[in-house]
Amino acid sequence: MDKSINQIKIVFWTLFGVMLIMLIMAVFATRSTGPLTEWTLTQKENLKSVILILSLGGIPASYFFHSKKVKHIAPELPMQSKINQYKISFLIKISTLEALSVLGILSYMLTADNTFLYVFALLFLAFLINRPTKHNILSEIEAGNPEETDES
């Protein structure tokens, strides 16, 4: 059980580190060279709209998917199987947030528009809120599978 929880933590902190490195590299490269391509105002605004819609839709979608998958974990399974199913769902959730933040960073590099850094910051915050701990993982699994009691 602890091995699976440690795997979840390792993947989370690895993605966290990768996101920070990408942010630092993108800011450094963009500040020193400028945008990768020249964009018209219309093109830049269209890209902003797409990235904002994806980001603002992706955050609740990842949470919804994860909570739905956790609620459908069979209560009769052994704890190790529950944690493995939780792990898959959690990795999909944080991968979604990480992929959307990469889109924000890439958009920043393409346009040098600080709006995309704000989008990245929003997604990074959503990512950090999901920091896995043993207590959080176990309580989320148990909350998704409340024990049924007979009141007859």
Short recap of the structure:
The chain is mainly α. It has helices at residues 2-33, 41-71, 79-111, 115-129, 134-144. It is built from 5 helices and no strands.
Percent helix among the residues? over 70%
Spatial shape: elongated
Main pleated sheet:
none
Instruction: Tell me the strand percentage band.
Output: under 5%
Poorly predicted runs are 148-152
Number of strands: 0
Number of helices: 5
Give the topology string: H per helix, E per strand: HHHHH
Mean pLDDT: 90
Structure classification? mainly alpha
Distance between the termini: 35 Å
Radius of gyration: 19 Å
What is the total domain count? 1
Structural overview:
There is one protein chain. The protein is mostly helical and 152 residues long. It has helices at 2-33, 41-71, 79-111, 115-129, 134-144. The chain has one domain. The protein has 5 helices and no strands. Helix 1 packs parallel to helix 3 (79-111), helix 2 runs antiparallel to helix 3 and helix 2 packs parallel to helix 4 (115-129). The longest helix has 33 residues, at 79-111. The protein starts with a helix and ends in an 8-residue tail after the last helix.
